[in-house]
Amino acid sequence: MPDITELLWALGKIGFMLAVILGTLPVMIWAERKGAAYIQDRSGPNRASIGGVFRLGGLIHPLADVFKLVFKEEIVPAGVNVFFYHLAPIIMMTVALSTFAVIPFGDVLLLGTREIPLLVANLNVGILYILAISSLTVYGTVLAGWSSNNKFAFLGGLRASAQMISYEINMGLAVLALILVYGSVRLNDMVVAQGDLLWGFIPAWGVVLQPVGFVLFLVALFAETNRNPFDLPEGESELVAGYHLEYSSLKFALFFMAEYCNMIVGAAVVSTLYFGGWQVPWLTTEGLRENAGTLLTVSLSVGTLLNLLFATGLWRKFQGERGTLGDRRELESGILAVVFLGLALATGGYLLVGKPWDIGPAASAHFATVMQIGQFITKTLLFSWVFIWVRWTLPRFRYDQLMRLGWQYMLPLALLNFVVTAAFVLFTHG
Amino acid sequence: MGYSVHGPKARTGGQGQGLLPKESLYLIEICKGLFITMRHLVRNVFHMGDMPTLQYPDEKPDYGPWLRGRHRLMKREDGSPRCVACQMCSTICPADCISIMAMDDDRPDVEKSPETFDIDLLRCVYCGLCVEACPCDAIRMDTGIFEIAADNRAAFQVDMDFLLNNTTDGVKS
């Protein structure tokens, strides 16, 4: 019988996960627009501002987008199947958010005598839950395409279903090989296993043990999330906007957000399965707790230096910009420079006064947890960036090329990878 | 910052034909492409000023003196319009946007002068033929003003007062 505190902890963890995803969303949208711009030698969004002062390099634009989408007219076309038309975006968003439930974002948190596993639901099916739930995304896409009563949207939904079914097989086979290697389907067991070292110096990450499986999984993930080389369901040059063609206002925003949520979840899954999840490379949880004082001192010093660097850089920018723009936007870099200087003073002051090299065991444990969560978020953000990077590098596949790649090249390769892994595991451990 | 573009080799046919073996593996080529885009990104992050983008409302492009911008009427030394109301410009105007009303002038050396000189900026095609046609260099299009916008049609019907005080520095006085 779970008591009330456990329920509260579960709610807290759900809240934390939601905050991470929904907080990362605008950053992802910003990174997509700004990254695309820089890749294409443009300067990207930099106009929207708060109070005419803070532009934050375009970070205000996602906020402005939200206001725009909320206040847009919501149009429901005449011929739609009203029930499924409204259900589809809900499915998309729910599925995207609920996948996160089984992803561990840290080792066990010690609070006094209480041990709290840092994942929302420690299911014994683990990775199978992710595969099962993420397959449901296709229902959202297909229902949106079909219920819109529009031939372009319908084609988009059709393409999505065929594509997802084709690439789910490859994804499943890649994951099966991984399950053979780790001997468990629980994600946390997998992450713990990835804390070992191979031959004493290489972290035993999934990507080292299963390089072919990693490539297969990554490609299949791109297809599953409908991202660029495989974004045929919404190929705007052929299908106008694909399956969400008839959606406007907030319902469109839900599709848009679900795409980025899927991306973040996909990045989290890749980093959990193949890049050690919350494991800090070369440092186990015990190692983190023992060396917490040293690590905290080092990270505080680095943080102070970085803050000082930012502050001076921004101050120089402030000096250089003075009088060029002719309005309050010139103040931004100056104010930010002062903020960073304040941060530098805070971290530096704590470094000098707080004796961070001499923290107690409880604080060490918390520090280890914070480091691991930070590691997990860093890896997730890096892989989310890979999604964006690939999108602005590669052109879209043609539909027959997509199917040929999936069935003729990737499926045999995935089967081969699976058989070789199985044989290896049998001869070494059996 | 010139970008070298390697010309594509002549390749024929469809799927996988004409590709070198290492190219048909895709992955190496994809990684090469990723490094190209990353190179552009890193260069643009660290050399933001080198980007060809113009921050338009803050930075204006310099089109040089040959730009045909909004018209202006030239003045004599005493401040009266140089125009003699000969109707050459309104005659040659292909868009028929200039309308001049002439009047007798009392001054001994001036026979006619315009009573009104109106230009419909919405009809003007900025061809510059009026400037070429003018026998006494009374109309010019050298103001450099190319941002001609308003929220009502009446604002585009400009009269002689407006045109006489249209200055070259891009600021309406």
Structural features, described:
The complex is a heterodimer of chains A (430) and B (173). With 430 residues, chain A is an all-alpha fold. Helices cover 68% and strands 2% of the residues of chain A. A two-stranded antiparallel ribbon of chain A has the order 1-2. A two-stranded antiparallel sheet of chain A has the order 3-4. In chain A, a hairpin with a 2-residue loop joins strand 1 and strand 2. By secondary structure, chain B is α+β, with helices and mostly antiparallel strands. Helix content of chain B is 23%, strand content 13%. Chain B has five helices and five strands, in the order H-H-E-H-E-E-H-E-E-H. In chain B, the strands form two sheets. A three-stranded antiparallel beta sheet of chain B has the order 2-3-5. In chain B, a hairpin with a 7-residue loop joins strand 2 and strand 3. The two termini of chain B are 40 Å apart. The N terminus and C terminus of chain B are likely disordered. Chains A and B meet through helix 1 and helix 16 of A and helix 2 of B.
